[in-house]
Amino acid sequence: MPKGRIYDEYFRAHFLGAQYDPMILPDPSQKDFAVPDLALPKSVTVAKLEDRRSLLELVDRSYRENITYVEHANLDTFRQQAWKMILSESVRDAFDLSKEPEKIKDAYGRYPFGQSALLARRLVEAGSRFVTANGYKAQAWDTHSNNNKSMKEELGPTLDQTLSTLLEDLSQRGLLDSTVVIALGEFGRTYDLNPSGGRDHWGECWSILVGGGGIRGGQVVGASDDKGAYPADRKVSMGDFYATVYKALGIDWRKEYMHPIGRPLKIANSLNDETGTPLRELV
Question: Which residues pair with 202 in a beta bridge?
């Protein structure tokens, strides 16, 4: 989903392989929104494309007999994905927001995050397994100044409108039970204001919203102290949260991957390098 190019690297799959890298899209709230290169130019027929692909494979085969690079594996992955997307009408349809009623667009919100969430719903409906809806300006939620004003006038209202509409829309379409919806950040904010009226980075306590996909909703798990500074009850780690989501999706949360340098990586890594525990209240 829309994101500043400077942050694109943060979303890549790195050692897991290029096939798991995301497809980062332009802002879907713009009037001229379109995903580039999803259709062939009118001057190129499918038959002509197949001829070009055959020629390319012939040239590649000859080249690789003499020179081999690891990057070829990534190129092959991207190329195969590109063929599938260009030749698939269903892919173009999934990205076509013009097929959505104006009333639905209004409900989600006519701003980047709202239309990103609407597009995310269309992609899930079309079979996408994982979608990130962003749409906010880079560091919009990094409220080191004017925190209260930003939260009240921009961030809070747009998040409330879009997220509630997304959950309701998924439910009405029968998709919520099979779709886990998560709203989170990577840390919290300080409980007091700095001299600029902002709230700075704080890793001791924060909140996450999760629902759908088999998660038992309508609950608040844990509590902070009266300042929102530290957990006062039912301390939960990120590893516990990961384990909960994995269990809801039918994934073994105890699984580990081996990093290329030989270091085992837990997919639900908790405090002190322990494996997280699914939250019994939710799954």
Answer: 188
